Amino acid sequence: xxxxxxxxRALLYYYYYPMWKGFFKALGAEVVVSSRTTxxxxxxxxxxxVDEACLPVKLFFGHVLDLKDKVDxxxxxxxxxxEHKAYICPKFLGLPDMVRHNIxxxxxxxxxTVNMSRNEKNLYRAFAEAGxxxxxxxxxxxxxxxxxxxxxxxxxxxxxxGFLPHESIEQMEEGLAARNFSPGQPQNMTIALIGHGYNIFxxxxxxxxxxxxxxxxxxxxxxxNLTGDIIEERSNELPKRLFWTLGKRMIGSAFHYMRxxxxxxxxxxxxxxxxxxxxxxxxxxxHLRRRGNLPLLxxxxxxxxxxxxxxxxxxxxxxxxxxxRAAQ
Length: 328
Ligand code: SF4
What we know:
With about 325 residues, the protein is α/β, with parallel strands linked by helices. The chain has helices spanning about 15-25, 40-50, 55-65, 95-100, 120-130, 140-160, 165-175, 195-200, 210-215, 230-235, 245-255, 275-290, 305-325; strands at about 5, 30-35, 75, 80, 110, 115, 190-195, 220, 265-270, 295-300. Helix 2 (about 40-50) crosses helix 3 and helix 10 (about 230-235) crosses helix 11. The relative contact order is 0.11. Iron/sulfur cluster (SF4) binds near residues 54, 91, 196 and 271.
Protein backbone atom coordinates (compact mmCIF):
# COMPACT_ATOMS: atom_id res chain seq x y z
CA UNK A 1 0.00 0.00 0.00
CA UNK A 2 1.47 3.43 -0.94
CA UNK A 3 2.36 5.87 1.84
CA UNK A 4 -0.28 8.56 2.25
CA UNK A 5 1.06 12.13 2.39
CA UNK A 6 -1.41 14.71 3.67
CA UNK A 7 -1.50 18.25 2.29
CA UNK A 8 -3.80 20.76 4.02
CA ARG A 9 -6.07 22.66 1.59
CA ALA A 10 -5.01 26.03 3.00
CA LEU A 11 -2.29 28.71 2.85
CA LEU A 12 0.29 27.90 0.17
CA TYR A 13 -1.77 25.01 -1.21
CA TYR A 14 -3.24 27.61 -3.60
CA TYR A 15 0.23 28.48 -4.90
CA TYR A 16 2.26 25.26 -4.91
CA TYR A 17 0.00 22.23 -4.62
CA PRO A 18 0.67 20.99 -8.21
CA MET A 19 4.43 20.94 -7.57
CA TRP A 20 4.08 19.18 -4.21
CA LYS A 21 1.64 16.64 -5.54
CA GLY A 22 3.67 15.99 -8.71
CA PHE A 23 6.76 15.33 -6.61
CA PHE A 24 5.22 12.93 -4.09
CA LYS A 25 3.19 11.14 -6.74
CA ALA A 26 6.30 10.54 -8.85
CA LEU A 27 7.81 8.79 -5.81
CA GLY A 28 4.83 6.48 -5.56
CA ALA A 29 2.99 8.15 -2.66
CA GLU A 30 -0.72 8.72 -2.44
CA VAL A 31 -1.40 12.43 -1.91
CA VAL A 32 -4.40 13.17 0.30
CA VAL A 33 -5.80 16.70 0.48
CA SER A 34 -8.06 17.87 3.31
CA SER A 35 -11.74 18.46 2.54
CA ARG A 36 -13.04 21.79 1.30
CA THR A 37 -13.45 24.31 4.13
CA THR A 38 -16.66 24.02 6.13
CA UNK A 39 -17.91 25.77 9.26
CA UNK A 40 -16.80 22.75 11.27
CA UNK A 41 -13.23 22.83 9.88
CA UNK A 42 -12.95 26.57 10.55
CA UNK A 43 -14.44 26.30 14.07
CA UNK A 44 -12.03 23.51 15.00
CA UNK A 45 -9.08 25.53 13.67
CA UNK A 46 -10.13 28.65 15.56
CA UNK A 47 -10.44 26.63 18.77
CA UNK A 48 -7.02 25.04 18.36
CA UNK A 49 -4.94 28.01 17.20
CA VAL A 50 -3.68 30.88 19.32
CA ASP A 51 -6.01 33.88 19.44
CA GLU A 52 -3.43 36.21 17.88
CA ALA A 53 -3.12 34.13 14.70
CA CYS A 54 -4.65 35.53 11.50
CA LEU A 55 -7.69 33.87 9.95
CA PRO A 56 -5.78 31.82 7.29
CA VAL A 57 -3.45 30.38 9.92
CA LYS A 58 -6.40 29.41 12.12
CA LEU A 59 -8.00 27.78 9.12
CA PHE A 60 -4.79 25.87 8.40
CA PHE A 61 -5.10 24.28 11.84
CA GLY A 62 -8.62 23.15 10.98
CA HIS A 63 -7.35 21.49 7.79
CA VAL A 64 -4.57 19.73 9.69
CA LEU A 65 -7.19 18.36 12.11
CA ASP A 66 -9.27 17.19 9.18
CA LEU A 67 -6.31 15.25 7.75
CA LYS A 68 -4.41 13.97 10.73
CA ASP A 69 -6.08 10.59 11.13
CA LYS A 70 -6.22 9.87 7.40
CA VAL A 71 -2.54 9.99 6.48
CA ASP A 72 0.88 8.51 7.30
CA UNK A 73 2.72 11.85 7.04
CA UNK A 74 1.73 15.47 7.02
CA UNK A 75 3.52 17.85 4.68
CA UNK A 76 3.97 21.24 6.40
CA UNK A 77 7.09 22.84 4.88
CA UNK A 78 8.76 25.71 6.68
CA UNK A 79 8.52 28.35 3.97
CA UNK A 80 11.09 31.09 4.44
CA UNK A 81 11.64 32.39 0.94
CA UNK A 82 10.60 31.38 -2.57
CA GLU A 83 12.76 33.85 -4.51
CA HIS A 84 16.04 35.69 -4.38
CA LYS A 85 16.25 38.25 -1.54
CA ALA A 86 12.55 38.25 -0.71
CA TYR A 87 10.62 36.52 2.05
CA ILE A 88 7.31 34.96 2.85
CA CYS A 89 5.32 36.24 5.84
CA PRO A 90 7.03 35.18 9.14
CA LYS A 91 3.91 33.20 10.11
CA PHE A 92 4.97 30.54 7.59
CA LEU A 93 8.32 30.10 9.27
CA GLY A 94 6.85 28.88 12.51
CA LEU A 95 3.98 26.95 11.01
CA PRO A 96 5.32 23.39 11.56
CA ASP A 97 6.19 24.24 15.20
CA MET A 98 2.82 25.87 15.86
CA VAL A 99 1.05 22.83 14.42
CA ARG A 100 3.16 20.35 16.39
CA HIS A 101 2.77 22.15 19.69
CA ASN A 102 -0.92 22.83 19.46
CA ILE A 103 -2.31 19.62 17.98
CA UNK A 104 -1.94 16.28 19.75
CA UNK A 105 -1.51 12.84 18.12
CA UNK A 106 -0.21 14.09 14.81
CA UNK A 107 1.39 11.73 12.29
CA UNK A 108 5.07 12.59 11.58
CA UNK A 109 5.37 16.05 10.04
CA UNK A 110 7.58 16.59 6.99
CA UNK A 111 8.79 20.09 7.82
CA UNK A 112 11.63 20.73 5.35
CA THR A 113 12.83 24.31 5.08
CA VAL A 114 12.42 26.12 1.76
CA ASN A 115 14.72 29.11 1.68
CA MET A 116 15.62 30.42 -1.76
CA SER A 117 16.62 33.91 -0.64
CA ARG A 118 20.33 33.24 -1.17
CA ASN A 119 20.41 30.23 -3.43
CA GLU A 120 17.66 28.88 -5.64
CA LYS A 121 19.28 25.40 -5.51
CA ASN A 122 17.89 25.16 -1.99
CA LEU A 123 14.56 24.23 -3.47
CA TYR A 124 15.94 20.94 -4.76
CA ARG A 125 17.61 20.27 -1.42
CA ALA A 126 14.29 20.79 0.39
CA PHE A 127 12.50 18.39 -1.94
CA ALA A 128 15.25 15.80 -1.72
CA GLU A 129 14.95 15.98 2.07
CA ALA A 130 11.16 15.65 1.93
CA GLY A 131 11.39 12.66 -0.42
CA UNK A 132 13.62 10.71 1.98
CA UNK A 133 10.56 9.23 3.65
CA UNK A 134 9.87 7.48 0.34
CA UNK A 135 13.27 6.71 -1.17
CA UNK A 136 17.00 7.21 -0.72
CA UNK A 137 17.64 6.89 -4.46
CA UNK A 138 19.10 10.24 -5.67
CA UNK A 139 18.09 9.56 -9.28
CA UNK A 140 14.47 8.94 -8.30
CA UNK A 141 14.49 12.10 -6.16
CA UNK A 142 15.87 14.19 -9.01
CA UNK A 143 13.30 12.76 -11.45
CA UNK A 144 10.46 13.39 -9.01
CA UNK A 145 11.67 16.96 -8.47
CA UNK A 146 11.58 17.56 -12.23
CA UNK A 147 8.09 16.05 -12.41
CA UNK A 148 6.97 18.46 -9.67
CA UNK A 149 8.43 21.47 -11.49
CA UNK A 150 6.74 20.40 -14.69
CA UNK A 151 3.34 20.22 -12.98
CA UNK A 152 3.90 23.66 -11.48
CA UNK A 153 4.69 25.10 -14.91
CA UNK A 154 1.52 23.51 -16.31
CA UNK A 155 -0.46 25.02 -13.45
CA UNK A 156 0.95 28.49 -14.09
CA UNK A 157 0.17 28.19 -17.79
CA UNK A 158 -3.46 27.41 -16.96
CA UNK A 159 -3.57 30.43 -14.65
CA UNK A 160 -2.18 32.68 -17.34
CA UNK A 161 -4.87 31.45 -19.73
CA GLY A 162 -7.40 33.06 -17.37
CA PHE A 163 -8.26 30.20 -15.03
CA LEU A 164 -8.10 30.87 -11.32
CA PRO A 165 -5.79 28.55 -9.32
CA HIS A 166 -8.52 26.30 -7.90
CA GLU A 167 -9.91 25.92 -11.43
CA SER A 168 -6.47 25.19 -12.86
CA ILE A 169 -6.07 22.42 -10.28
CA GLU A 170 -9.46 21.01 -11.27
CA GLN A 171 -8.50 21.23 -14.94
CA MET A 172 -5.27 19.37 -14.29
CA GLU A 173 -6.90 16.69 -12.17
CA GLU A 174 -10.26 16.19 -13.73
CA GLY A 175 -10.26 18.15 -16.97
CA LEU A 176 -13.40 20.01 -15.85
CA ALA A 177 -14.62 22.73 -18.13
CA ALA A 178 -14.27 25.46 -15.48
CA ARG A 179 -14.46 28.95 -16.87
CA ASN A 180 -13.50 32.34 -15.68
CA PHE A 181 -17.09 33.58 -15.78
CA SER A 182 -20.58 32.20 -15.29
CA PRO A 183 -21.70 30.21 -18.32
CA GLY A 184 -24.29 32.12 -20.30
CA GLN A 185 -23.75 35.38 -18.40
CA PRO A 186 -22.68 38.40 -20.40
CA GLN A 187 -19.44 39.82 -19.00
CA ASN A 188 -20.46 43.41 -18.56
CA MET A 189 -17.64 44.34 -16.24
CA THR A 190 -14.15 43.21 -15.16
CA ILE A 191 -12.93 43.50 -11.61
CA ALA A 192 -9.41 42.86 -10.34
CA LEU A 193 -9.58 40.95 -7.09
CA ILE A 194 -6.44 41.59 -5.05
CA GLY A 195 -5.85 39.36 -2.03
CA HIS A 196 -4.01 36.29 -0.84
CA GLY A 197 -4.91 33.16 -2.80
CA TYR A 198 -5.68 31.36 0.46
CA ASN A 199 -8.38 33.93 1.21
CA ILE A 200 -9.97 34.66 -2.12
CA PHE A 201 -10.05 31.11 -3.53
CA UNK A 202 -11.40 29.44 -0.41
CA UNK A 203 -15.12 29.69 -1.12
CA UNK A 204 -16.07 29.34 2.56
CA UNK A 205 -13.96 32.07 4.13
CA UNK A 206 -14.32 34.40 1.13
CA UNK A 207 -18.09 33.78 1.30
CA UNK A 208 -17.89 32.77 -2.34
CA UNK A 209 -16.89 36.26 -3.39
CA UNK A 210 -15.81 35.15 -6.85
CA UNK A 211 -19.02 33.18 -7.42
CA UNK A 212 -21.09 36.19 -6.34
CA UNK A 213 -19.26 38.52 -8.72
CA UNK A 214 -19.65 36.07 -11.57
CA UNK A 215 -23.34 35.70 -10.86
CA UNK A 216 -23.58 39.44 -11.45
CA UNK A 217 -21.99 38.90 -14.88
CA UNK A 218 -18.60 40.17 -13.78
CA UNK A 219 -15.29 38.77 -14.96
CA UNK A 220 -12.73 38.37 -12.19
CA UNK A 221 -8.97 38.64 -12.70
CA UNK A 222 -6.29 38.18 -10.04
CA UNK A 223 -2.52 38.30 -9.60
CA UNK A 224 -2.44 34.62 -10.57
CA ASN A 225 -3.38 35.46 -14.16
CA LEU A 226 -0.17 37.50 -14.58
CA THR A 227 3.39 36.39 -15.17
CA GLY A 228 6.03 36.90 -12.48
CA ASP A 229 7.83 39.37 -14.80
CA ILE A 230 4.82 41.68 -15.02
CA ILE A 231 4.39 41.65 -11.24
CA GLU A 232 8.09 42.34 -10.69
CA GLU A 233 8.15 45.15 -13.23
CA ARG A 234 5.08 46.91 -11.86
CA SER A 235 6.07 46.57 -8.21
CA ASN A 236 9.41 48.17 -9.13
CA GLU A 237 7.49 51.41 -9.58
CA LEU A 238 7.76 51.79 -5.82
CA PRO A 239 10.85 53.73 -4.70
CA LYS A 240 12.15 50.67 -2.81
CA ARG A 241 12.09 47.02 -3.78
CA LEU A 242 9.54 45.09 -1.73
CA PHE A 243 11.05 42.13 0.06
CA TRP A 244 7.73 40.47 0.98
CA THR A 245 6.83 38.10 -1.85
CA LEU A 246 3.09 37.97 -1.18
CA GLY A 247 2.78 41.73 -0.70
CA LYS A 248 4.71 42.28 -3.91
CA ARG A 249 2.29 40.04 -5.80
CA MET A 250 -0.64 42.08 -4.55
CA ILE A 251 0.91 45.49 -5.18
CA GLY A 252 2.45 44.55 -8.56
CA SER A 253 -0.83 43.13 -9.84
CA ALA A 254 -2.88 46.08 -8.54
CA PHE A 255 -0.47 48.53 -10.25
CA HIS A 256 -0.76 46.53 -13.47
CA TYR A 257 -4.54 46.32 -13.46
CA MET A 258 -5.04 49.98 -12.57
CA ARG A 259 -3.41 50.90 -15.90
CA UNK A 260 -5.78 48.84 -18.02
CA UNK A 261 -8.87 50.43 -19.57
CA UNK A 262 -10.59 47.05 -19.47
CA UNK A 263 -10.65 47.05 -15.63
CA UNK A 264 -13.71 48.65 -14.05
CA UNK A 265 -12.77 48.44 -10.38
CA UNK A 266 -10.47 46.86 -7.81
CA UNK A 267 -11.46 44.88 -4.74
CA UNK A 268 -8.79 44.42 -2.10
CA UNK A 269 -9.39 41.60 0.37
CA UNK A 270 -7.44 41.62 3.64
CA UNK A 271 -7.41 39.24 6.59
CA UNK A 272 -8.25 40.75 9.95
CA UNK A 273 -5.11 40.81 12.09
CA UNK A 274 -2.70 40.73 9.12
CA UNK A 275 0.01 43.39 9.36
CA UNK A 276 1.28 42.98 5.76
CA UNK A 277 -2.27 43.29 4.38
CA UNK A 278 -2.93 46.63 6.03
CA UNK A 279 0.32 47.91 4.58
CA UNK A 280 -0.36 46.67 1.02
CA UNK A 281 -3.95 47.93 1.20
CA UNK A 282 -2.71 51.39 2.13
CA UNK A 283 -0.19 51.52 -0.74
CA UNK A 284 -2.77 50.37 -3.29
CA UNK A 285 -5.31 52.92 -2.04
CA UNK A 286 -2.84 55.80 -2.19
CA HIS A 287 -1.78 54.96 -5.73
CA LEU A 288 -5.34 54.61 -6.89
CA ARG A 289 -6.26 57.94 -5.36
CA ARG A 290 -3.31 59.57 -7.09
CA ARG A 291 -4.34 58.15 -10.46
CA GLY A 292 -7.98 58.91 -9.66
CA ASN A 293 -9.26 56.56 -12.32
CA LEU A 294 -10.73 53.48 -10.60
CA PRO A 295 -13.12 52.70 -7.76
CA LEU A 296 -11.71 50.62 -4.93
CA LEU A 297 -13.51 48.44 -2.40
CA UNK A 298 -11.60 47.33 0.71
CA UNK A 299 -12.95 44.20 2.39
CA UNK A 300 -11.56 42.72 5.59
CA UNK A 301 -12.56 39.19 6.45
CA UNK A 302 -12.38 37.28 9.72
CA UNK A 303 -14.12 34.30 11.27
CA UNK A 304 -17.07 36.50 12.28
CA UNK A 305 -17.66 38.16 8.89
CA UNK A 306 -21.30 38.05 7.89
CA UNK A 307 -22.35 37.19 4.35
CA UNK A 308 -25.16 39.77 4.27
CA UNK A 309 -22.72 42.62 4.92
CA UNK A 310 -20.40 41.46 2.12
CA UNK A 311 -23.26 41.11 -0.38
CA UNK A 312 -24.57 44.59 0.42
CA UNK A 313 -21.17 46.16 -0.04
CA UNK A 314 -20.53 44.24 -3.28
CA UNK A 315 -23.86 45.28 -4.74
CA UNK A 316 -23.31 48.91 -3.77
CA UNK A 317 -19.84 48.82 -5.33
CA UNK A 318 -21.12 47.35 -8.61
CA UNK A 319 -24.01 49.87 -8.71
CA UNK A 320 -21.55 52.69 -8.20
CA UNK A 321 -19.42 51.47 -11.13
CA UNK A 322 -22.52 51.34 -13.30
CA UNK A 323 -23.61 54.89 -12.37
CA UNK A 324 -20.11 56.11 -13.07
CA ARG A 325 -20.18 54.54 -16.48
CA ALA A 326 -23.60 56.02 -17.25
CA ALA A 327 -22.39 59.45 -16.15
CA GLN A 328 -19.32 59.19 -18.37
S1 SF4 B 1 0.46 37.47 5.18
FE1 SF4 B 1 -1.13 38.04 6.66
S2 SF4 B 1 -2.81 36.65 6.23
FE2 SF4 B 1 -0.97 35.76 5.33
S3 SF4 B 1 -0.14 34.39 6.88
FE3 SF4 B 1 0.88 36.37 7.12
S4 SF4 B 1 -0.32 37.44 8.67
FE4 SF4 B 1 -1.58 35.76 7.91
